């Protein structure tokens, strides 16, 4: 199969299921001759177990919906810590960060007993499992997934099951051929964490499951209905439908209060529905591709065998396309097979979501990032409430975790997440980048500008008189020798604010506004710091802390400047690389300083050295962060090593879906991150407020890729429609919406707005295009 894969591995584990989806609804397709539920992996979940639809020896489709967050934890107002901000700052500058973090928790508990334990967000849960239990479960098993159409197929014995989720019709279409057995629709075989009243019915040509939730608070969904229209020979039997021959099932999850058109009005024509869906889905999928090697070569295989980078580029894009609908992908995309997903499978904004949507932005599908903005804009009042109550500030403050609401409820004495204030500024970069990639001036004016200015309003009020970020937080790291994640002037906070304010100045130029206000705020910010050991420091610290009478002072630690008495020596044994933010998007001009650039290079290499060890088995998207920084610095081999580690450790060959840890935790973060990293190694772009934008071709091309081709790469100011390279020669077709300077090694060319120009660069240095080794 050109786009997709075929496997003979059956599984009862939903985490190893094949995936298909339309962004709004998802389907996990699994089962077959795999023994009891759970025998195929960590957690059977899915249909097996008490109350489940099926059991050993069935074909299953577990259904889900992007808005199906089970109401478990009632949202609370964020703790009112604004009045004690001077006290928190005194503790931080005085070298008592743990006390500062603990003070927030204590104050929250005093306000509301619900804060006595760490509060989580509502989990993304499955709606039901549709199981087909064959009368005679025997025979060979084969399953496949076609990335270009979204069609998933299972064949077992004489039965063939085909599944996709239609974008135009918003329905899960399931076709059985040669079926003889029982169809059952039921909740998954787990006990939900809160009471849910289920009611099911089976009738002529119909299966229905209704769920009513026990929670009753504003904004919580009240329940849902799964309805299945069954077309073909089917008779009610044992709470399900006995089917024989060829049967079509049209299934969908309807959230309580929604009013879709009757399912009976949809055409009972699988092939027609598939053609209509494949036209839309196929257009998205076909927009970008890579070939790494000669045209006649088979796709490269990663170390130790298994799928190569090209196939993972396809698989990652497929997963993100399939889970981008009205909302962006959660940690698990649009899929869930459990009531207890890790981190509740919401939207984690201190790294995960940015990784998941980095791929669509870079690979020709910018419209798939729009759901991020829809989500954020639906929660602006919550974000304003966070800023008001936590810090007494105007503007917005985004929490690190959210699902059904945006109130800042998740924090603790160790994970002191109320101190992380970079979220809105980071997300503002996604707004600005959408404009930079598309040239949509109306979007810049009507959507990006309002969000960006609210993010900056917060900084106007929050920064101390000398421009410090206090409190501050570098996700989720603790300085070496320190005892708390709380700090002053995390490098990420400084970098995000610098980036936001530069982009606001840029936007003012485009919109004809006065940038002086934002330029003044930019001048107040701290600079970056080089650690005594030579790396870009993860904590800038406060070199000149203000005088707090009640703050016990202390000398700076050996690691450099301190926030009062807080040592800020770097800790490289960590999964995040947040201090490298100034290199992930458009490179911060501060790194034109050779000394600072050299410090960033050393920081990449020190963090990468930790990733090579056995202890670095968690959180794949940290390698995306590291690889993007390496690519921005022209560190081709380091970027390639990060990419190789991603491919070797964090993908399951049974379904080509990425994981959060090594072979553990179904997670789509690097389904977006890996394609973005490949793109960053092949093109780099920047767009100033005026004059020519810049596009660098092959800025971080590793020696492993002497030949190759890429299509449909988005850049700031236009697109690289086609890029091919071989030793000594590069060809590109570039389309521009802004004036662009295209650079390849020492050679350059200009492309003007509205032009599509074929370019050829020859006689290039072999360091740029490495020759094949003998």
From TrEMBL:
Domain of life: Bacteria
Any GO molecular function: alpha-L-fucosidase activity
Domain Glycosyl hydrolase family 95 catalytic: 271-682
UniProt domain Alpha fucosidase A-like C-terminal: residue ranges: 692-733
Chain coiled-coil ranges: none
Region span, Disordered: 39-58
Gly residues compositional bias, start-end: 39-57
UniProt cross-references to InterPro entries, sorted A to Z: 6-hairpin_glycosidase_sf (IPR008928), 6hp_glycosidase-like_sf (IPR012341), AFCA-like_C (IPR049053), GH95_cat (IPR054363)
Gene Ontology annotations of biological process type: carbohydrate metabolic process
Record-linked SUPFAM superfamilies: Six-hairpin glycosidases
Family annotation (PANTHER family): ALPHA-L-FUCOSIDASE 2
Protein name as catalogued: Glycosyl hydrolase family 65, N-terminal domain
Organism: Planomonospora venezuelensis
């Amino acid at each position: 199969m050109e786009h997709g894969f075929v496997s003979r591995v059956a599984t009862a584990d939903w985490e190893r299921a094949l995936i298909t989806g339309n962004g709004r609804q998802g389907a996990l397709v699994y089962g077959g001759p795999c023994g009891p539920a759970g025998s195929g992996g960590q957690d059977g979940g899915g249909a097996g177990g008490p109350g489940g639809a099926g059991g050993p020896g069935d074909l299953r489709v577990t259904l889900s919906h992007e808005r199906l967050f089970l109401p478990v934890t009632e949202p609370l107002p964020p703790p009112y810590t604004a009045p004690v901000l001077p006290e928190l700052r005194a503790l931080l500058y005085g070298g008592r960060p743990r006390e500062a973090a603990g003070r927030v928790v204590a104050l929250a508990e005093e306000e509301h007993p619900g804060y006595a334990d760490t509060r989580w967000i509502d989990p993304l849960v499955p709606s039901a499992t549709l199981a087909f239990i064959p009368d005679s479960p025997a025979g060979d098993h084969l399953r496949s997934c076609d990335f270009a159409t979204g069609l998933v197929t299972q064949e077992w014995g004489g039965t063939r099951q085909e599944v996709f989720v239609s974008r135009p019709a918003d329905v899960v279409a399931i076709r059985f051929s040669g079926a003889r057995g029982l169809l059952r629709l039921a909740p998954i075989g787990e006990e939900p964490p809160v009471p849910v009243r289920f009611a099911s019915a089976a009738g002529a040509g119909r299966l229905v499951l209704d769920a009513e939730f026990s929670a009753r608070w504003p904004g919580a969904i009240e329940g849902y209905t799964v309805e299945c229209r069954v077309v073909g020979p089917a008779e009610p039997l044992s709470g399900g439908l006995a089917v024989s021959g060829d049967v079509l099932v049209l299934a969908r999850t309807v959230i309580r209060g929604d009013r879709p058109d009757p399912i009976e009005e949809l055409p009972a024509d699988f092939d027609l529905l598939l053609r209509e869906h494949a036209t839309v889905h196929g257009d998205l999928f076909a927009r970008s591709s890579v070939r790494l090697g000669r045209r006649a070569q088979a796709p490269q295989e990663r170390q130790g065998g298994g799928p190569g980078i090209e196939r993972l580029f396809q698989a990652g894009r497929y997963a993100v396309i399939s889970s981008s609908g009205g909302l962006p992908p959660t940690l698990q995309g649009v899929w869930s097979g459990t009531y207890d997903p890790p981190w509740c499978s919401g939207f984690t904004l201190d790294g995960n979501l940015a990784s998941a949507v980095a791929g669509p932005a870079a690979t020709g599908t910018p419209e798939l990032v729009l759901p991020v903005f829809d989500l954020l804009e639906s929660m602006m009042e919550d974000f304003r409430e966070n800023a008001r109550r936590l810090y007494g500030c105007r503007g917005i403050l985004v929490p690190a975790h959210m699902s059904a609401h945006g109130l800042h409820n998740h924090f603790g004495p160790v994970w002191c997440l109320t101190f992380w204030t970079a979220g809105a500024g980071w997300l503002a970069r996604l707004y600005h980048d959408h404009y930079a990639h598309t040239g949509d001036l109306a979007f810049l004016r009507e959507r990006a500008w309002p969000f960006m200015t609210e993010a900056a309003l917060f900084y106007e009020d929050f920064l101390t008189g000398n421009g410090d970020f206090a409190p501050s937080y570098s996700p989720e790291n603790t300085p070496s020798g320190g005892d708390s994640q709380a700090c002053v002037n995390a490098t990420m906070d400084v970098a995000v604010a610098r980036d936001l304010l530069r982009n606001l100045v840029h936007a003012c130029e485009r919109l004809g506004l006065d940038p002086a206000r934002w330029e003044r705020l930019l001048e107040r910010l701290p600079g970056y710091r080089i650690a005594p050991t030579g790396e870009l420091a993860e904590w800038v610290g406060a070199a000149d802390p203000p005088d707090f009478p009640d703050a016990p002072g202390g000398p700076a630690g050996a690691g450099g400047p301190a926030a009062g008495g807080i040592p800020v020596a770097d800790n490289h044994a960590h999964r995040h690389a947040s201090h490298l933010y100034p290199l992930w998007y458009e490179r911060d001009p501060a790194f034109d300083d050779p000394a600072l650039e050299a410090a960033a290079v050393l920081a990449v290499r020190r963090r990468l050295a930790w990733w090579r060890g056995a202890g670095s088995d968690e959180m794949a998207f940290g390698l995306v962060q590291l690889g993007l920084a390496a690519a921005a610095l022209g560190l081709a081999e380091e970027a390639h090593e990060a990419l190789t580690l991603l491919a070797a450790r964090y993908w399951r060959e049974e379904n080509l879906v990425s994981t959060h840890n090594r072979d553990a935790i179904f997670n789509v973060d690097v389904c977006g991150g890996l394609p973005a990293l490949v793109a960053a190694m092949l093109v780099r772009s920047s767009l100033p407020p005026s004059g020519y934008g810049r596009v660098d071709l092959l800025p971080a091309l590793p020696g492993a890729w002497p030949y190759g081709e890429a299509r449909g790469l988005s850049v700031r100011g236009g697109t690289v429609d086609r890029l091919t390279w071989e030793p000594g020669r590069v060809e590109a077709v570039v389309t521009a919406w802004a004036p662009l300077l295209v650079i390849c090694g020492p050679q350059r060319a200009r492309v003007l707005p509205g032009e599509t120009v074929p370019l050829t660069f020859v006689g290039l240095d072999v360091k740029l295009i490495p020759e094949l080794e003998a």
